[in-house]
Automatic annotation (TrEMBL):
Pfam families: LRR_RPS2. Gene3D superfamilies: Ribonuclease Inhibitor. The lineage of its organism: Eukaryota, Viridiplantae, Streptophyta, Embryophyta, Tracheophyta. SUPFAM superfamilies: RNI-like. The keyword Ligase does not apply. This is Disease resistance protein At4g27190-like leucine-rich repeats domain-containing protein. Residues 34-162, 193-321 form the Disease resistance protein At4g27190-like leucine-rich repeats domain. Keywords: Plant defense.
Length: 466
């Protein structure tokens, strides 16, 4: 429990206790070898003692490469303007959940010269849950972000990353001197970004505005959060993010399917091969990835990794359809409380490249593979490359599949069946594996053994030993 009078600051895997009744660091503090500093839940107005800290003082933190500040609700700013020249080693800046934070750098009101801020080694900037943050610096300035590769701006509603009007007139200034500008020189930093994460209005702007295509030439991962759209405009993404490999979507208002049909499929089908990984988080109304007769199949056929978390209305993840998932190597479903089945038997046969499969906390799931054919007689389903299979916290799971299929897992190395109290056998039909599969079983994975060639016999034995 952190009090106002005394707080703990963690750095370099050690902890020190400081009197923070007035400030965190005064001018006497010298930590010249400190590389990483994390400050959390400290009730002070300032981190450093003076707004105009002497240049001879702040170099005592000259080795700082990583700064994380979170839940410091009284802070109005992080740095004073005069400190910035001594932050040449800073590589990672992460500011989260500071309710009163209004700016990252406080204004030097005594200095009439437009400041020049250079962050020569900063590769990662994360700004999250900062409801009052308005700007990087309140006055005119010249920033340089020479090395920035990863930019995360999430729930900073007053911060205008993509401000259309670069000049604003001060109501009290009859001369109309510009006093505010976009916090980042986008035309300089966007071409170097490999990862971009945005929410709300900034997310809409990046998807809808007419930006030159070359601005996103290096982008490999795009994270978009909190959008009220009924479908994600995948074609807009393909038109401007030509080298995108990972697409992550948080908390949309999807209902019928993930991607909207706006745009021309034939025009973009060749670009779909670049997207290798799709991550879906907290789409509470999403019922299916795509419709039965969807024309969006090419989007999924190139995917190598699919992860779905807390999509509470999903009933089945990979249904029977014309959509192919033949390139999937990793499949994860977690916390989808209505998910009863992961994949149909006909779709399971197409997962010829699957290496890792994990299902966690899907408490309505009764079986992983559901039969979608009539009169199954000694059919085989072969997961030829599957090495790892994890089934965890599945209260309703009775078996991997209740139909009379023969399952073969010629490459399986590890099987985890943890907190699946109703699972007494692995499958109704045969399940064939190589010898020496390592099995975790039980409430806490406390039962472990090397399985023989028959997973059914192994699961039955472990269940009987509980």
């Amino acid at each position: 429990q952190v009090s106002q009078e005394e707080s703990t600051t963690t750095y370099c895997s050690s902890e020190i206790t400081l009197d923070t009744s007035t400030l965190l660091f005064n001018e006497k503090v010298a930590l010249p070898n400190l590389e990483a500093l994390e400050i959390s839940e400290i009730n002070v107005d300032k981190i450093w003692h003076y707004n105009q800290i002497p240049a001879a003082v702040f170099p005592h933190f000259q080795s700082l490469t990583r700064l994380i500040v979170w839940r410091c609700h009284k802070l109005k700013y992080i740095f004073s303007a005069s400190m910035i020249g001594s932050l040449k080693q800073l590589q990672h800046l992460d500011i989260r959940d500071c309710k009163d934070l209004q700016e990252i750098i406080s204004e030097n009101r005594a200095d009439q010269v437009i400041p020049y801020f250079v962050f020569p080694q900063l590769t990662t900037l994360r700004l999250q849950d900062l409801p009052k943050l308005r700007c990087l610096y309140p006055g005119m300035h010249t920033p340089e972000w020479l090395a920035l590769e990863m930019l995360f701006v999430y729930r900073c509603d007053k911060l205008k990353i993509f401000a259309a009007d670069l000049l604003q007139k001060n109501e009290n200034d009859q001369l109309g001197i510009p006093v505010q500008q976009p916090p980042l020189p986008l035309e300089k930093i966007l071409p170097n970004l490999t990862e971009l994460s945005l929410s709300g209005k900034d997310a809409k702007m990046i998807l809808q505005a007419d930006f030159p295509q070359h601005l996103f030439g290096s982008l490999k991962r795009l994270v978009i959060a909190e959008d009220d759209s009924a479908g994600f405009p995948i074609w807009n993404v393909l038109e401007r993010f030509h080298n995108l490999e990972i697409l992550t979507l948080f908390n949309f208002s999807f209902h019928e399917e993930v991607f909207s049909m706006e745009g021309c499929l034939e025009k973009h089908v060749g670009k779909l091969a670049t997207i290798k990984e799709l991550e879906l988080y907290r789409h509470y109304h999403l019922k299916q990835l795509c419709k039965q007769d969807s024309k969006l199949g090419p989007i999924f056929q190139y995917l190598e990794i699919l992860k779905v978390y807390h999509c509470q209305s999903l009933l089945i993840l990979l249904p029977s359809s014309s959509v192919s998932f033949g390139n999937l190597t990793k499949l994860v479903a977690s916390g989808c409380k209505e998910l009863m089945h992961l994949v149909t038997s006909s779709t399971a046969k197409t997962l010829v490249r699957l290496v890792s499969l994990g299902v966690y906390g899907c408490r309505a799931m009764t079986e992983v593979v559901i039969n979608d054919k009539d009169g199954v007689e000694k059919e085989e389903i072969v997961f030829r490359k599957l090495k790892t299979l994890e089934l965890c916290d599945l209260d309703s799971l009775t078996s991997f599949c209740s139909a009379n299929y023969t399952f073969e897992f010629p490459s399986l190395q590890e099987l985890g069946v943890i907190c699946c109290p109703k699972m007494k056998i692995f499958t109704t039909g045969e399940s064939i594996t190589p010898p020496g599969v390592y099995v975790w079983y039980g409430e806490t994975a406390d039962q472990r053994c090397w399985a023989n060639n028959d997973l059914n016999a192994t699961i039955q034995q472990l269940h009987a030993e509980k």
